[in-house]
User: Fold these one by one.
Assistant:
Number 1:
Amino acid sequence: MQAALYALPVLFLTIFYLYPLLAILRVSFGASLAEAMEQVSAALRSPGFWRVLWFTTWQATVSTLLTVLVGLPLAGVFARFDFPGRGLMAALLTVPFVMPTVVVAPAFLALIGRNGLLNAWLQRLFHLDAPPIQLEQTIWLILLVHVFYNVAIVIRTVGGFWSTLPPTLAEAAAALGASPRRRFWTVTAPLLAPSLVAAGLLVFLFCFTSFGVILILGGLRFATLEVEIYRQAVSYFNLPMAAFLSIVQLVFTFTIMALYTRVQARLSRTLRLRRRAFARRPASWRQWAVVGLALAATWIGVLSPLLALAVRSFTLGDGGPTLLYYQMLGENLRQSAFFAPPITAVRNSLVYALATLAISLPLGVIAGYALTQPRSRWAAILDPLLLLPLGTSAVTLGFGYIVAMGPLRVSPWLPPVAHSLIALPFVVRTFLPALRALDRRLREAASTLGADPFRRWWTIDAPLLLRALLIGAAFAFAISLGEFGATLLIARPDRPTMPMVIYRALGQPGLMNYGQALAMSTILMVITAVSILLIERFRLPQGEEF
Amino acid sequence: MLEVRAIHKRFAPDKEVLQGVSLTVEPQEILCLLGPSGCGKSTLLRIIAGLERADQGQVLLHGSDITETPTHRRSVGLMFQDYALFPHLNVAENIAYGLRMQGVSVAERRRRVEEMLALVNLEGYANRSVDDLSGGEQQRVALARTLAPNPTLLLLDEPVANLDRLLREELLEALRRILKHLQVTTIFVTHDQEEAFALADRIAVMRAGRLEQVDAPAALYRRPANTFVAAFLGFRNLLPILEWRDAYTVCTPIGAFSLPVPSAARSATGFRLLIPPDAAVLDSAPSSATYVPLVGRVIDATFRGSVFRLQVALKENEKDDNVLYFEFRTRGREVLPAQGEPVQLWLDVAQLCVVQEG
Amino acid sequence: MFAQRHVWNSLRWRLHGARIWLHRLYRGPLLGALLVAALLAGCQPLTSPTPAETATPTPLVLASHDSFNISEEVLARFEREHNVSVQVLTLGDTGTALNKVILSKDAPLADLFFGVDNTFLSRALAADIFEPYESPLLAQIPDDLEMDPQHRLSPVDYGFVNLNADREWFASRGIPLPERLEDLTDPTYKGLLVVQNPATSSPGLAFLLTTIDYFGEDGYLDFWRGLKENDVLVTDGWSEAYFTHFTVGSGGAGDRPLVVSYSTSPPADVVYATDGRTEPATVNVFPPGSAFRQVEFVGVLKGAAQPELARRFIDFMLDVEFQSDIPLQMFVYPANPNATLPELFVKFAQVPPDPVIFDPAAIEANRERWVQAWVELMTQ
């Protein structure tokens, strides 16, 4: 029974990930293996290939380190302090996740571009002739935007875990003479390590396979493996080469993931997790200052580009405030057969996102338990395997679905399945550190009190792990809301989701289209923030709040 | 040594957990903060440790104001109820942690850890993982960790509350022996009066954010400042005073008693008469003139090992005010009085005292 | 202020109520059942098609790229006439969509595929996925648009990739619009141009091909070296170039007044204007040899479930009604000259004088080498 349950995530991954992947690899290499091998060896000898591989790894590593560096202090502030608007802010931090790069890039440039707000302001302040910040098409802008997109992973994964750490540990260290900094390095950081590694893993994978960000903001000088795969697969239809590169990317990510997950498992400790988050009002002006600083940084770095985007959706064009773009979203200007009023797109997106939750949450929970089984032989494989979909080229997998999925190819249920593949690592990664830290004795106590395994889970595990699970759920939901499935799967233009409406609008020139894309993006932003607020508000009904 | 002046602390506008607490602790003294849960004793301890900020008031250590000093510069040792052992460090690393923070050399650290392990009877445990320890062992490691850096002041927050009774008594004795041996000034927080009696040089009883009484255990036991303290110490016989016949004589629902010393309190209301449970003997009249006879009926008798307890009704109706609780030596007694059986008691009026209501 | 607070409070109460409600359901198996039911109910519109009015229409599946569009009315007429329901699947950008169709040739996704352009024509024909069909309407279509003598693919529309410029930007600065491609490497135009990556974008590839045609295989890289030194900006797709960096498209946020786009972008700028402008803010610039003609084709897929209906649909696509619908739906020119062009097209969507018409076979044969060389140069 238990084994059958644990087999579910494996089965899911096998059917919806491994099978299509192997199918496309077989088709790719099938034609002429010898010729393929020749190409491969040529690729291995070319400096270009190694340059791309090096750059991909390098930028992912640096982006991850930077994101952790920026996210960690913010995670601390969110974990330890309660301040007005904390929940809303946490929800907003997840919004970048759903934002298409096409609409985010202009928002960034509007702020820090050559003609951007910040430059204009600095120029006026210091009477400069040239804009002082020139980040366009530099690696710095790529790194900055990677931090923007991924900092929420660190803040929420680490912060969520942090808030359930017993505060007495740091207090004990303080009483033993440890200054705040040493407290952090000798006690808090080692205890946070599993969740830090988890967050790092996800950020690394996202940056490793980064596609749009690199090209939009970095220009051509910075090509990643993912770009190279797209080029080989789509532009040249050189499937053997694309397959080879996909395998390189997979082997690479699998190795790194296997290493990381091993480290993460070893770092885990049994802790007395707190039932509820420990967050208090800042008690001194110094604490208020820390919180204020963190909030200011968050506003400037993450929220102001989003706000700039929203403002543009109301003012684009002549500069005066307007609701035009929102009104026009509801009007079928060119009598298109594929027009859908915004409410339909919102509904479609929400239905997909709910379905994604319904798939990825149970599977993630089951996978988490399978991974924490003592002496589980396949945990070492399953753990990195769960992460692999994030490290797989979307084009390759999309082709795999076409080859392998038969009549399912056109099923409306396929998008949530694909979204779940991406969401699953998030659910598992956020859930696992908390699960591993859960004190075994609590379950034993419940058993002795007569709780059957399910009741035991529902009354002990679930409430204690809920916070971690909700964070995973928030990510899963956001991923589904923002995912643009057309690259991966088959889209039905008559059933558009919010991102599809945005992309369709951006397919034609004209401010009206652009404005509508911005308007839809703003709606997407609001829907995401509200959904996540609602998810986070959910509590298992045993708490004091009832 | 330690002085706490008029500490106020509020967690919410309507929730003032400390309402002006002042306290001094003498060098080498073991002071116990005793009170029911929620009385503010742990908060006071956390304020002394610097983990909580007082809204008003000061904390002075060796005469210098440390109210604003952060915890890690206070040189106070704090042991938590859940021990807060660092799960990522082994036993030796846990104990050495405070020394590491002081920059003590590795060799000295090792020596000191061995010394501490010997002190708490855990030789050979140095490389154990803290997850593998029993509750008692964890408690001792926590104590060793707290003591290792030689804190000026030791703060113990319900250090034995999580342990079973036998272990608790054993550890309390060990604790007192160690604390006295090291001559370390200690504040000990508990809600259990037995623990307080076993360990403390002085006991400070707290209630709802205020100190009710600070006294040595024996004095506290003999002269509780008010009925709250008395009740908290376990006294159950607190009879209402109906009237004062004169400075020596009080009337209660079960009769009038002449006190050995005149009481300053002459008003009938606001006071109760405290009869300690060991103030009576059974059956045979003692020779001392301070004993007066009482006749009652047994409501309940319970065997408690070296003593047994009787619940005695002194009048026909068994109203609370008519029932007294007594303890007698078990020695020399084959059977306990049966329920409903009449008993003859001799009460030592020298042990009675008048306690303010509060 | 108070009203807001009131709303907020009532919202919180409702949330609280919802939680109590959940609490009550909590112990029973009801919650699970309800969740499933809610999910299924929510998905209802996704899984069940709208009820048929008359006899069940035959389904016809059209696969395309994500820019395909058609008027509701026009499509509905075809559906009524032939009692079919047309299901459109979009499979990604042009290259991705074609590759998906090729990969699924053993079990076709659709009955017909629209969206092969001349840069992918050779690949599509080599993959042998289309059935020949010579529509009678081909007679109305100019011969130079037909590129497959076996009529496996029929031309539906065509357009031009060329430079667009911010008229106002150049006028106000007194800078002349570039007259020759070589001008773009002149310091006057430093930092003004944004183009697309030919490896990931179809206009990007088109523009690269024009430079190969104009400068020759030996010379195009030198030109690009000059562009690189002149601070050309490269994005991966058209949307990013146009809406993020092009001064007109971005509503003033971008700083590039020259972009590689389409000759039909100016009329789109008017159609989708928000200020009621009658003149486009962007103009076509046609330095000699800088415009590339793209032709889009449709074909019946081998193994189609409804080959006959698919052929009818091709006739319908080539006929005047659909052809007249093309300009304002997809912003390209109809292949059929009998179609009516909207006035805006006539006025602002100029046809370049000497468009580059590239041999599809040469594109397919050299694409990888050319693009590779370009990438090497630009990433050095």
Number 2:
Amino acid sequence: MAHLTHSPSEPTGLRSLVADWSADREAFKVPCGKAMMWIFLLSDTFIFGCFLTGYMTERMASPVPWPNASEVFALTIGNAKIPLILIAIMTFVLISSSGTMAMAVNCAYRKDRAKTAALMFATAAFGVMFVSMQAFEWTKLIVHEGIRPWGNPLGAAQFGACFFMITGFHGLHVSAGVIYLLTVATKVLKGRYEESGNYQIVEIAGLYWHFVDLVWVFIFAFFYLW
Amino acid sequence: MAYAEHHAPQSFWTKYVWSQDHKVIAVQYTITAILVGLVALVLSDLMRMQIGFPGRLAFIDANHYYQFVTMHGMIMVIYLLTALFLGGFGNYLIPLMVGARDMVFPFLNMLSYWVYLLAVLILMASFFVPGGPTGAGWTLYPPQAILPGTPGSDGGIVLMLISLVTFIVAATMGGLNYVTTVLQARTQGMTLMRLPLTVWGIFVASIMALLAFPALFVSGVMMLFDKLLGTSFFMPAMVSMGQTLAYKGGSPILFQHLFWFFGHPEVYIVALPAFGIVSDLLSVHARKNIFGYRMMVWAIVIIGALSFVVWAHHMYVSGMNPYFGFFFATTTLIIAVPTAIKVYNWLLTLWRGNLHLTTPMLFALGFISTFAIGGLTGLFLGNVSTDIPLSNTYFVVAHFHMVMGVSPILAIFGGIYHWYPKVTGRLLNETLGKLHFWVTFLGTYAIYFPMHYLGILGMPRRYYAYPNYEFIPPSAQYLNAFITVAALIVGVCQLVFIYNLIRSVFNGQPAGPNPWGAASLEWQTPHTPPQHGNWGPALPQVHRWPYDYSVPEADADFLPQTSTSPLTIDEATHGHGDKP
């Protein structure tokens, strides 16, 4: 690497950072699609950031007590009421899907088409499982607990509003991600990227998927553990 | 992508309508924005008729007045200024100025325009729903925005919010393109520190748009839920028209925070491209390099960053902890530093320059004047103690119209007069252009300068009529009538501009490839107007910054960025010992 040795006239330290960034080459040594995904995810971070900040403000401003998370999100299995069990499984499923996604990216770079596609389908399947469990959770809250976006027999009305809005918006992200993964996986299987030999698209889809997982960790922490 | 892969579209539909060519998309954006801007212009003149000559136009009742105020503000800020700077100028200039064949995602770019058009159509549709468009004020503050009593609180506000969310989708698709293209698609030799300031302004504004619009998106979605689902995000418990409402426990202040977390950066999303365009116009038409190029770049970046931590200065009268007021006043005033650097650098660019008072130059000079005036009144509004008495008066209207209305629109006019020859191959008529400039420039001063005085008199803004306000002297009405006459003249004068735009496409004087003798890359295309793919078979190579004007010992009075001459007045190049 020629860049590692600086000639005396080349800037060092912070200035070298500026010099590298402002050089007449791609600012990020990645394809445009990947750069765009990074920038998009930064923008999306601000959307979720605003949602979560809004939720925290609502919760702190609410004159009525907030429902107790470990009771609302408990599930009765057999005769035992286990707090947060469903959400623990959902989180586990989603984190696992990040694992299969990472393996898919690895296989894609080794140009193992069948394995890449299989792992991506597995990731998508985990995603579908997650959304299904979310649907189950929504059903439980709506039908059994009577929680609505506009009202909540257990306490603050904003609980239902924030919960359905934020988990709904995240669920839409997961659903969109599933469609995205299925599209790319099908193309991988058909050998669409064989000609160019460029499997970057798998990594780009992976970036999105990991992001959606990461956002879930924050929603989980702020909504279920607070 | 190799040049050979580009097949220029042939049929009318693929070439001019469903086009993926950034130049066509830019023109589509520009025309749509100008048309919707004309609607907003007519609305503003109707408002002025009511204020200047109350009751003369009988059809303007209080509800209509508020609807005109709201739609005028929202259209001007979002659908005209933002769309025209980023979608219009950004689309046209970024690929040409950085030496790219197109945006990096042409299809996404095309989609961006069509989604923008959809947002405009949804907004325009709100004029035709029962109850009319929303009259909540352009800030759409809840609870009033969605409650009966405010005009358009049913269909109007819903369509407004849906239109805004749609616009944000379009702006995101466009913004991703602009940022990625600047970062990844520059031609050989085009370092970031050789970009024209226009590109710097649009680039930073696009990043800001990607980070600020999310807050508007979120507040829009939440308010839609409040309206349609009956959630209480922004709605406290209250009695409306004698009825206790079902809403309870929400926070109206949260909306204000989200709105202004978008709203303040939005000011600079509009201002930074204007800064960039004015810098380039001044340099070209003064035949001098821009003074302090690096400082100008850093000022743009710093202004962009600071603008995210000043938002609550729009909320002093909402009530806040005094320490927060202190914090936001301080950050607000700190922005004056990089902004003042820019104004001084513009003046020093003009200092002993060879000034060509062409129409674009006049508009650029006009921008400095209006922007400095608007910035100075900002000092009063940025401080809590002086803001509170002025906040609800015409002083605020005067301030932000000078700084955010007139200034960016002057930069837009200047930019259009400057780049029109590249877009069409013909010059705009100079006589009509100068008429347009002087009427607009002097007219806007005639409109907004007296408003400062009205504001200090205490005349409240947003009011439909002023019966029983004894503290306002009767003479204020003379000023208001004067302002209205000036506004009508300025409004009519814009028709001269429209006529000039249309006429010159067919009858304008042929411009040649580089009528202003400009050094930046967009003027060095092999064809004017540039063809599909912009650069013919080979991409240009850049050897210098875009400001080598009046270089001592050079043959011509400018050296284009593609010139290989060893002469330059770029200080950065001097510093690295490239000078012979």
